[in-house]
Design a protein that fits this description.
By secondary structure, this protein is mainly alpha-helical. Helices cover 62% and strands 0% of the residues.
Length: 148
């Protein structure tokens, strides 16, 4: 399982190990933990447990409808990319942890050459909350989180 606090092997280094590996099966066995992606609902629940947060409060801070939010936490719903980003703000994650959250949700990482993504990245780095993010997106004429 991806440990939100553990520094993974840098991608370039991991890629070089892959290229140097004489046997792909052995490589997969050795690096199984590095390649495993946990279920999204377990991952967000683990983040809450480690940080002492209550899912109900995270959902509220994420500006996600309560029932939908609980469905994300119990695994009965799969989140959209925007919902993952809203949860990142509700969880108080930084940019690096948000990128991990997007990976676990199997969504595209934030990309700084896209205006909307760049604005979201800046808000994550500056520790803004969901209302501040939405206000910035609106002021820039970009779609709000949850509108897509």
């Amino acid at each position: 399982m991806i440990d939100p606090d553990r520094k993974p092997i840098p991608t370039r280094e991991f890629y070089m190990k892959l290229l140097e590996s004489p046997d792909l099966k052995v490589f997969f066995e050795i690096h199984a933990g590095e390649m495993e992606i946990p279920p999204f609902h377990k991952f967000i629940s683990e983040i809450c447990a480690r940080s002492g947060q209550v899912p109900e409060q995270v959902i509220k801070r994420s500006a996600i409808e309560r029932t939908y939010g609980h469905q994300l936490f119990n695994g009965t719903r799969k989140p959209s990319r925007d919902k993952v980003l809203q949860l990142a703000f509700g969880l108080g994650l930084d940019l690096e942890s948000t990128q991990k959250l997007l990976l676990v949700a199997r969504k595209n990482a934030l990309y700084p050459k896209l205006k909307r993504d760049a604005a979201i990245m800046l808000c994550l780095e500056k520790g803004k909350d969901i209302l501040e993010v939405q206000a910035l997106l609106q002021s820039l004429g970009l779609s709000l989180l949850g509108e897509r």
